[in-house]
Amino acid sequence: MKRLLASLAIVALIAGAAQAQEKKTMAVSVPTADHGWTGGVAFFAMQEAKALEKKYPGLKVIVKTSPDPAAQANALEDLATQGIDALVILPHDPNVLTDPIRKVKQKGPFVTVVDRISNDHSIYDLYVGGDNPGVGRNAAVYMKEKMGGKGDIVIIRGLPIPIDEARYNAFMDGIKGTDIKVLDTQYGNWSRDDAFKVMQDFLVKHPKIDAVWAQDDDMVVGILEAINQAKRTDIQFVVGGAGMKEMIQKVMNGDKMIPVDVLYPPAMVAVAMDLTALGLEESMPVRGEYILNATLVTKENAKNFYYKDSPF
Amino acid sequence: MSQAGHETAVPRKRLVEIGAVAPFLALALLCLLGLLVNPRFLSVDNLTNVLARSTFIATIAVGQTLVICGGGLDLSVGAMASLVAGLVILFLNSGWIENAPLLIVAAMALSLAVGALCGLFNGVTSTVGKIEPFIVTLGSMGIFRSLLTWLAQGGSITIKNNDVRAVYRQVYFGDVFGVPYPVLVILGVAIIGAFILYNTAYGRRVRAVGSNEDVARYSGINVARVRTITYVLQGLCVAIAVIVYVPRLSSASSTTGLGWELTAITAVVVGGTRLKGGIGRIWGTIAGALILEVIGNIMLLSNAVSEYLIGAVQGAIIIIAMLAQRGLARGR
To answer: Is B149 in Cβ contact with A33 (below 8 Å)?
Structure first.
């Protein structure tokens, strides 16, 4: 049965190729919106799909969201059997999805991996991602300077996955050798509610905290509410990350609690789709790795990173 | 709390009461542990934080106690909470009523109406459709959460008007004579829940239906109606939890209420309610919800447990608490 399906797919592919360059299909597979950032990813993917179809009348873009790694693996099989010319994928868990992606690649489509990769770099033609170590490093550089190299901080991490690890390690490296003391570290699961809880407990536990590093703007919402409620004035500022529009707005307004933000934009999926389309439709040499900077957003440059229509 | 029945043997009655008190003993022991771990555990700030935080689970778990006691199960409560929260915030943003307090009261009424409707849907589908409640509510869980994600376009829905926000904020952070509103909500919901379950004819029917459906049917009880109403009550409890939840962060997103169903069911079981139905302990459920929240709090306040192992220690404490309870209640 599988072989039959596979051969059907090949027939479809050949038939597709025979139709000449007029009709091409790009499949985009992303996680279901399970928090603000992935919500942004889905939003930008849909928006860019429309824009690309308008720009290239011969291009069809299918966007598919999947709630978990297993469902995403199934989605990849379904997409591949439909016959696609390119796949843009932001994998739930890069380790789990390496093989399913390889299978798609073996059938011939151009494969673009976004944001998360495993150690196997042979499964993609193009990689587009944010600078995870940069998210930690740039936050560390800023906090070091702002705090004059000393003070007490608490850290709220995301989920225990490689992305969080890369950010955390780079941050810890960044503050090494200074007198910045990390009082406490906990996971906030990239969730507002969990970060609120963790911050409330940190505030009870530690009578003096100078600053907070949270690497994610969704969590910063909860953190600010907890600080606000406890009426604590010792916390001078909070550094988040990602570039949620509410936080960019605060930076723009010169909010003392949110002096900066570190970019890790969900719009990277749109960049990946554009580059893939360039390769597909205009035969541009786009194979390689494209890393977006983890730019430090300050009051001066904030307006360049404020996207009014984005849900994130 | 008088579900001990009217058996004549006095010592027997006392043993049953120990079973009802066990969750509170476990809670007291945990508080002692908390004090040992960090003296700040007993500070007023920390206790109000923990009590206020447990409102959502405690309130929802009271409804779940009724549902489980009646032989049902509701997995959709977390997703329902996110959907109701989203609709309430959208309503607040619509600004239908100029006056902020009136607008908020209207939003609360809307919350209760939507919650009751969601519960009615679960109840009718499982009883009239004769489908396992596990499946029905698993389905509605997906429906409710997706609807919220769709309404929020994958992002979050936030209260836009700052005046409304400032007024509504009091519902979570405000207090009467030092007692925070959320604590009053827990008490109120528990008192009403206990009254319904132990002191009304309806409550007796719920327990009868839960302990033996066939016997209940032969004695002339309308099983479908009794069960359906438990789901509606569960929906109302979710709505009340949402009314308290929304002012906290003034936003709802697809992570709102994630996993609440399992936490609520755990609270119910830790509190001594029988998962198979027939026996329900409202006050035990409240203790169960507090136990779960306190465990998390102690983990964070202690320096001994690595952040990687918190889940394991929490799980172990829950199991030990249950074992201790069983040990106490044995002899029944």
So the answer is: yes
DSSP assignments along A216-271, one per residue: -HHHHHHHHHHHHHHT-----EEE--B--HHHHHHHHTT-SS---EEB--TTHHHH
Please give, rounded to a whole number of angstroms, the shortest distance from the CA of A97 to a CA of chain B: 23
Please list the residues that pair with A297 across neighbouring strands.
A261
Query: What does the pLDDT look like over B8-64, one tens digit per residue?
Result: 444 444 545 666 788 888 899 889 989 998 888 888 888 988 999 999 999 999 999
| A2-130+266-291 maps to CATH 3.30.70.1140 | no
Where in chain A are the domains? 2-130+266-291, 132-262
Chain B nearest CA to A288, separation (Å): 30
List, in sequence order, every beta strand (DSSP E) within chain A.
24-31, 59-66, 86-89, 110-114, 126-130, 150-157, 179-187, 211-213, 237-239, 261-262, 288-292, 296-297
Digit-coded pLDDT (tens) for B126-174: 999 999 999 999 999 999 999 998 888 777 888 888 888 889 988 888 8
Q: Residue B206: inside a domain, yes or no?
A: yes
Predicted TM-score of the model (pTM): 0.79
**Cβ contact B253–A192 (<8 Å):** yes
Q: From the candidates A38, A44, A192, which should be mutated to test the interface with B, based on the most B CB atoms within 10 A?
A: A192
- Nearest CA of chain A to the CA of B248: how many Å? 8
Interchain proximity B296–A197, CB inside 8 Å: yes
Q: Is B165 on the interface with A (CB under 8 A)?
A: no
* Strands ordered across the beta sheet of A211-213: A179-187, A150-157, A211-213, A237-239
Model-level ipTM above the cut of 0.95: no
Whether B155 sits inside 8 A of A312 (CB atoms) is yes
Is the pLDDT assigned to residue B217 strictly greater than 90? Answer: yes
Question: Which of A35, A204, A312 lies at the smallest CB-CB distance from B43?
Answer: A204
How close, in Å, is residue A37 to chain B by CA atoms?
8
Which class is domain A132-262? alpha beta
Q: Give a yes or no: residue B234 inside a domain.
A: yes
